[in-house]
Amino acid sequence: MTTDFQTAREALGARLRELRAEAGLDGKDLASKIGWQPSKVSRLQNGKQTPAREDLTAWAHAIGRPEAEAELHGLLAGLDMKQRHRSWRRQLAGGHRGRQEIAVRQTNATKTIRGLEVSRVPGLFQTPEYARVIFDANAEFRGISPTTEAAVEARMRRQEALYDPEKTFRFLVCEAALYHRSCPVDVMAEQLDRLYNLVGQRRVELGILPFGAQLRRTAPHAFWIYDRRLVIVETISEELWLTGDEDIALYERAWDWLAESAEYGAPARRLIGRARRSLDLT
What we know:
This is Helix-turn-helix domain-containing protein. This protein is of the alpha/beta class. Helices cover 50% and strands 13% of the residues.
């Protein structure tokens, strides 16, 4: 059983446990309503057993939350590690929360994360207000239930990993992301202040790819590398989860080539400060 599979299964189990608790039911009560043994409820919500779609449907209806069925089915789809293409339509059917819980557990299971962001601030570095705007806009774009507050809470919880002495974060951010503003100016100012203060932080290496830099390889899209076992690539319609050795090596090379042209330390702070000063806060 792969780490990624178990991580996704634990995320699903945690959501099942949370939904049960919100309904005011204990494990025995829920088992009785569905006609299961209490041990099955325990195994499912602790990530010890993989549920069938029918199990999730029964769970959602037993707790009086039939609308949660789509979210749970989306989380179940994320368990298939052979599925390289994961549509956003299925993953976000019940809102953003479930996918954010998977991200929390992926981060907890990883020692080194490398990433490239082209047009926005990485989720690990986002302020709550910036994240809230991103989730709201994406929910409107996709026509889904936003579950924004729960998603923001999960994203902030994920950021606790930045202070774990066993982990390292190495990120490249294109300078354009410092200027692309999908949020109110005061929110963007706070977000740039956050980035400025992250530069030089222990265990966080933040490089800015400046306008006009000569690149051995252009930055075509965002991607995240989890240790040397998984690459996640986001497109408008789907995520790609790549685990093959050749795919991982290719993205590592792309990251290394781009990192050669990045600015770090004081020069990175100057680039962030310049973007901050460009905001009209009057």
